[in-house]
């Protein structure tokens, strides 16, 4: 069975760190550092995705606003047009999406609710597992 967002989340877990759009950039940067993550999902009412805030957004905010950015709401700097995937999205589709759109994190939705987040590292690990399994099947066939 080809790997999917669901299989990645089943392997890594479905815990997602989220913040409110009213959190300051400084607080959001602290959340990223505290959890050793590169992106945090911004959620509004009923845990609906309203944005994603990444390390790149921190750099862009400081580059344009300087120190004043730290006290502004994260909603001023987050990416509001968030590309999402479903749990049945294939790893190949994820690779294509991340590559063509040039981002490293994709929130996963199930029935309109946040059910996980997948990073480019998760996709690479999944692909490596697939290739290793294929190699084992070929070895078994040859030895067979």
From TrEMBL:
<dbReference type="InterPro" id="IPR044725">
    <property type="entry name" value="CBSX3_CBS_dom"/>
</dbReference>
<dbReference type="InterPro" id="IPR051257">
    <property type="entry name" value="Diverse_CBS-Domain"/>
</dbReference>
<dbReference type="InterPro" id="IPR046342">
    <property type="entry name" value="CBS_dom_sf"/>
</dbReference>
<protein>
    <submittedName>
        <fullName>CBS domain-containing protein</fullName>
    </submittedName>
</protein>
<dbReference type="Pfam" id="PF00571">
    <property type="entry name" value="CBS"/>
</dbReference>
<feature type="domain" description="CBS">
    <location>
        <begin position="12"/>
        <end position="69"/>
    </location>
</feature>
<keyword id="KW-0129">CBS domain</keyword>
<dbReference type="InterPro" id="IPR000644">
    <property type="entry name" value="CBS_dom"/>
</dbReference>
<feature type="domain" description="CBS">
    <location>
        <begin position="78"/>
        <end position="134"/>
    </location>
</feature>
